[in-house]
Amino acid sequence: MELFLPSIAALLISALIVFLVLPRLGAPVLVGLSVVLLVFCLYNHYTLFASEYRLSTWQEQLKWYAPVIMYGGLTIAVLMYLGYLFNSNGPSMFPASNISGEPTNVSEAVNNSAVAATNAVNAVSNAVGLGNVLGKANNKGNNSVLGNLGGILNSPKRNNNHALF
């Protein structure tokens, strides 16, 4: 029995390490190992081809093109910015809203904000595939999130409208 307990303790400790510690170390170990191997490969590559890097001269001719590329890129960026500022819709990255005029009081502004928030939530939910979140459900509840969740969570025998398979 004296030989049996230490072996079980060693087995339990090793099981704890394998199941609790190692799964959390996978990503950091891979990142660290890849960084070390990248540095090692770069060092070996540079030591192996140091003379070729030192004697290489073909890229010296590219120095003459640097000002042309820089001025050309800067000119294109300035022209694009001016086109962005002076386009027909103005310098807005959002399309014109369908709210007619400016709100005249606080309640109108709050209502306009609520409509915009509802439209945004419904657009996101439709893109994700949840259906109309804030809208009214139709007669069977197929159009709301709660109706969809109810169809998923209920068994197929009690709710034939939402078959799982």
Structure description:
- With 165 residues, this protein is mainly alpha-helical.
- Among the domains are: 10-54 and 63-85; 121-165, no CATH class.
- Helices cover 62% and strands 0% of the residues.
Rg over C-alpha atoms, rounded to the nearest angstrom: 33 Å
Instruction: Write down the overall geometry.
Output: flat
Counting helices, strands and paired strands, the structural category is mainly alpha
**Helix share of residues?**
55-70%
State the order of secondary-structure elements, H for helix, E for strand: HHHHH
Fold topology:
Layout: H1 4-48, H2 50-55, H3 66-85, H4 106-128, H5 145-153
Care to give the gist of this entry?
It is built from five helices and no strands. It is mainly α. The model is unreliable at 136-150 (pLDDT under 50).
Keywords:
165 residues; mainly alpha
